[in-house]
Amino acid sequence: MKVLGIETSCDETGVAVYDTAIGGADGLRAHAVYSQIALHAEYGGVVPELASRDHVRKLLPLVRQTLDEAGLSTGDIDGVAYTAGPGLVGALLVGAGVARALAWGLDVPAIGVHHMEGHLLAPLMEDDPPAAPFVALLVSGGHTQLVAVDAIGSYRLLGETLDDAAGEAFDKTAKMMGLPYPGGPQLAALAEHGTPGVFKFPRPMTTRPGLDFSFSGLKTQVLLAWQGSDQTDATKADIARGFEDAVVDTLAIKCARALDATGFDTLIVAGGVGANTRLREKLRADAKRRGGRVCFPRPALCTDNGAMIAFAGALRLEAGQHGDAAVHVVPRWDM
Ligand code: KG4
Ligand code: ZN
Predict the structure, then answer these.
(1) Interface predicted TM-score of the whole assembly (ipTM), two decimals
(2) In a 3-state reduction of DSSP, which class is residue 304?
(3) What is its EC number (predicted)?
(4) How many CB atoms lie within 10 A of CB 162?
(5) What is the CA radius of gyration of the chain?
(6) Least distant ligand from the CA of 280
(7) Tens-digit pLDDT profile for residues 127-178
(8) What is the spatial distance between Cα 35 and Cα 41, in angstroms, rounded to a whole number?
(9) At what angle do helices 166-176 and 183-191 cross, to 10 degrees?
(10) In which element (H, E) is residue 148 found?
């Protein structure tokens, strides 16, 4: 089955074709992401109305480009998957409207996909995918969750953030230190030049039992350290490194706890923060020590993309699921 995937939940227009007959990493026939970063940069964050309008402008040309790259025409598509939520309602409606209209015109099924399920399943698009059960760490700009995946489609929430998501903490901390939007990757790049241990921040909620997270206090600690410092470039990098180490350690401690609690030996990591190099290194080292396994999508498929939506949609369409022709989106939606 060749499924066209469409992602428009926030500030990235993502389109892809996943071919289940090929499967694995090669099953991804083509994917393209158009990022609206430059559009929102001057406002320091995503402006929902501008996001929707830009999806309107970019989506159809991107569908055309992706099909061309895959060497396919619209008539080759067997199904269309789109992000139905959670996300910005106007942005979601653009993707849902185009997906439903395309499916209607091509007389193929369409299915709305949960954005976080897309992230969660993205590591399974790589070669030699792990089989359930496993623990999933979902770390994006809007979510930080630990999920027990007993089977594909069967998810138990083990823990989640009580305030800021990990990506949100990266972005807000970066903004406080004057880094341009979107701050997460910039802060991570800056941390590469910092010296570990110069600034030592707490690992929130790790000294008591439980699998929930809280990153908002950490952000305040960093602000105080930044305000009380000489604010040179070198200090900025040291603070970035101290912050990144605190987030990475905290996530790693809770992942180990979740693996202990479930008895599972495989961890998968997904969402934008999963692209963080230090997090990947730390979780790989931990897995080696435990004799377990950790799987990530390639960095480009950690952040928002159409491939994960095509893949998650393909699994559901192959299982016979699809909605009616209504253009239905769910801005707030538990997985
Ligand atoms: O999954 P995603 O693309 O969008 C959401 O669904 O939220 O995640 C975006 C988040 C942003 O907060 C961004 O700052 C963060 O992921 N991010 C990173 C890195 N790359 C993206 N955070 C830390 N290190 C990175 N390398
Ligand atoms: Zn996302």
Answers:
(1) 0.99
(2) coil
(3) 2.3.1.234
(4) 13
(5) 20
(6) 1
(7) 999 999 999 999 999 999 999 999 999 999 999 999 999 999 999 999 999 9
(8) 11
(9) 80
(10) strand 144-151
